[in-house]
Design a protein that fits this description.
The chain is built from 15 helices and twelve strands. By secondary structure, the protein is α+β, with helices and mostly antiparallel strands. Strands 2-3-10-5-9-6 form a six-stranded mixed barrel, surrounded by four helices. A two-stranded antiparallel ribbon has the order 7-8. α2 packs across α12 (about 315-350) and α2 (about 25-60) runs antiparallel to α14 (about 370-395).
Length: about 400
């Protein structure tokens, strides 16, 4: 073993207990470990929430939506066949969308009414997985009253249950003597879903495509076509291919465009948390600086002897830099182990009251890239913290400590 490593290891040990490490070394390594562990847990939680939110959004919405600049798509079956012919497209289904008012008794709430084909929708989105009571197949008319699927929050707001009747009101209706009259139609609550996002559970209702077309007076036309692709992260490329294939007046919007602000905010928040929590590791690095500076003062006589024996300034710097790197490496490894154990516990052991948080557990997503980034950051900060104390040790004059020996 080179003498640099041997001496650096010796300086990490306690004076009284040669087989154990010193208290200062343990505190310095512990500070780095706490910083690394906190950073890993927070980044894993942020990644988990990002993935959970993305899963819920893509569970209700399609990866790509094809629309028309003219408002409605009339000959949609031909367009639908062209879209399905694209190699990266898994499935496609037509839909009708409009903003309406839902009411029951004296309670009312504004919602988006989406008309779907239940048989095609099952292959395009995962809304069927969120149905808690009833089925999408029950949206067909029963006793002349069309079925409708509503969110749990909306059901609570209106005070309705499955098989109850609610009114759907559209501000755009027929022209009468007093002007435009609102259109009102009764719907039967055929199913209740719970996505876990208030926006969808309170503002979205589903009915069969033909019912929505009749209600909005659209005939055989539709609002757009939902498209599911093989790889959600290639939705932009598929959208551009479809736009070239369909040409004007059709255009597409992928899920990243439709929710750009939300996911950009989450990414910025994760970056901000990374920067803030790196400060914990920076604070821990001052412990490393303090430990090394104390060692330089305590070991001044040993440093002078090493220089008298022929050790160079570079060799002295190497000894103290290795000492700091060992502390940083030990703290980083302990922090990684602690972060992984905490993440596993949050993901599998610790449970939350689902009726309060809408979550039974924290959505933890431990990414290898996060672990690598945090480890490199901690090691880099630990290395930088060794430079000044090592430089002070290297420039020490060997004559002064040995003058009175």
């Amino acid at each position: 073993m080179p003498y640099h490593f041997f001496i650096a290891f010796r300086y990490l040990k306690s004076k009284k207990r040669r087989k154990g490490i010193s208290l200062n070394t343990a505190i310095s390594a512990g500070g780095v470990a706490v910083g690394v562990m906190a950073l890993l847990v927070v980044l894993s939680v942020m990644s988990g929430f990002h993935e959970d939110l993305q899963r819920k959004i893509l569970g209700v919405n399609a990866h790509i939506v094809a629309l028309s600049y003219r408002g409605a798509i009339i000959d949609y079956k031909e367009v639908l066949d062209n879209i399905r012919g694209e190699k990266d497209v898994v499935s496609a289904s037509p839909f009708v969308l409009g903003q309406v008012m839902s009411s029951s008794g004296k309670m009312a709430h504004g919602v988006f009414l989406r008309g779907i084909d239940p048989s095609l929708e099952a292959n395009t989105t995962e809304i069927g997985k969120y149905i808690k009571d009833g089925r999408l197949d029950d949206l067909k008319s029963k006793d002349g009253i069309p079925g409708i699927a509503i969110g749990k929050e909306l059901a609570n707001s209106l005070g309705v249950f499955r098989n109850d009747i609610i009114n759907i009101i559209s501000a755009v209706g027929e022209i009468g003597p007093m002007g435009m009259l609102p259109k009102v139609r009764q719907f039967r609550v055929a199913a209740i879903f719970e996505v876990g996002m208030f926006e969808y559970d309170s503002n979205l209702v589903l009915t069969e495509l033909s019912h929505a077309q009749n209600f909005f007076g659209m005939g055989n036309s539709i609002t757009g076509i939902e498209i599911k692709v093989k790889d959600v992260y290639k939705a932009k490329e598929v959208r551009e291919q479809l736009q070239k294939k369909l040409a004007f007046p059709y255009y597409g919007r992928d899920w990243m465009q439709m929710h750009k602000n939300l996911f950009s905010a989450l990414k910025l928040e994760k970056l901000a948390m990374f920067v803030i929590l790196v400060l914990i590791i920076l604070v821990a690095s001052f412990n490393i600086i303090g430990t090394l500076m104390m060692n330089v003062v305590e070991k001044s006589r040993e440093i002078a002897i090493l220089k008298a024996m022929g050790a160079t300034n570079k060799g002295i710097m190497t000894i103290f830099m290795l000492q700091g790197i060992f502390i940083g490496l030990a703290g980083t490894l302990l922090g990684i182990a602690g972060g992984y154990i905490l993440g596993y516990m949050f993901n599998n052991v610790i449970r939350l009251p689902a009726d309060v948080y809408y979550l039974s557990r924290l959505p933890i997503k431990m990414k290898l890239l996060d672990f690598i980034a945090v480890s490199l950051s901690a090691l880099t900060i630990s290395f930088l913290a060794t430079i000044y104390p090592a430089w002070q040790a290297a420039k020490l004059n060997p004559i002064e400590p040995l003058r009175y020996e």
